[in-house]
Amino acid sequence: xxxxxxxxxxxxxxxxxxxxxxxxxxxxxxxLGMARALVVATPGSGARLGERVLAMLGSRAAGLCAxxxxxxPRAVAEAGLAAAxxxxxxxxxxxGGGSAIGLAKIVARDAALPxxxxxxxxxxxxxxTIWGTTDGDRKMTxxxxxVLPRTVIYDPELTLGxxxxxxxxxxxxxxxxCIMGLWSPTRTPISTACAGEAVRRFGAFLPRAVADxxxxxARGECLVASWLAGTVLAAGTGLNHKLAHVLxxxxxPHAETHAVxxxxxxxFNAAAGGKVPARLAxxxxxxxxxxxxxxxxxxxxxxxxxxxxxxxxARIPDAAAQVGALGIETPxxxxxxxxxxxxxxxx
Length: 347
Ligand code: NAD
What we know:
Bound molecules: nicotinamide-adenine-dinucleotide
CATH superfamily of the largest domain: Dehydroquinate synthase-like - alpha domain
Distance between the termini: 39 Å
Number of strands: 8
CATH class of the largest domain: Mainly Alpha
Number of domains: 2
Shape: globular
Largest sheet: 6 strands, parallel
Number of helices: 13
Strand order of the largest sheet: 1-8-5-4-2-3
Helix content: 40-55%
Structural class: alpha/beta
């Protein structure tokens, strides 16, 4: 029998997927009733894509706000809101990764504007009602239906230039959400189905996308997998995320840390038995899922161990004590001693 669950269906969202789908951006903005869309992007190459989208929106474009930055610092959020007001925007078109979508979410939340998202990375933020912002070192997150993009356009052509290392680490981060989501106490039959399917697609196509960034089929499958992974995030996070969060306190980078930890946390959780190991084995076509993930990681030119990320071994006992104090019980209890062994193995 299924475990007991509560499933909250997400607010309606239209998802358009096709190579070249960016060409539909003006039509999709019209469907949302946008007459003055503010394009939100990161600076640099993000801004160049933003300019392109601005031109495609034609008379529906109100302006470009290419100031997005990772974790939406408060000053950036305030400037984004000011840009929406100054341009009298009636909608936001977020083009780029989690940073551009994250800024649009804060503006949407505070100015009650709809978002049309055009993701260009595997963050999956476009599929969640989660917003986040930072004030110095302080991070605030929350959930609001209003920040979920009303429409998402997935165009794999926009991801062809994503560097191999970013491709690998951000997709391993998305895989971590899916794999841990299979053990989440708040999982539902839908999140489990999406997680398994995302792991299957990443397992088959991520190595191809990393080896050859111009492989449009592999890029498209990874983009679909990251959409599914975003929906799984709604079911909560697990051991990998909690460990990565604690290590983030020592300055370790988020996605790369997720990637390094994933084979180890998967091995640890799989030892609890249950249905998940078989599900993962099927999705990854491997009898030993943790070994398969370690093999995938080894094939990517990204940091392989915590020591490669500059982590100081002397911090392991302190980090392990923090993880042990979190009281993680699912699928098995994680003591400080367990966390220490896990971190030592990953180091
Ligand atoms: P990002 O958006 O910061 O992008 C990283 C860099 O890659 C940027 O400089 C960007 O310009 C560049 N880039 C983006 N797409 C590119 C492409 N196709 N080709 C070449 N370069 C490209 O990074 P990210 O990992 O997508 O997002 C990270 C942020 O998203 C974090 O702040 C994280 O907290 C947030 N996030 C939020 C959620 C949520 O549900 N709210 C989920 C996941 C991540």
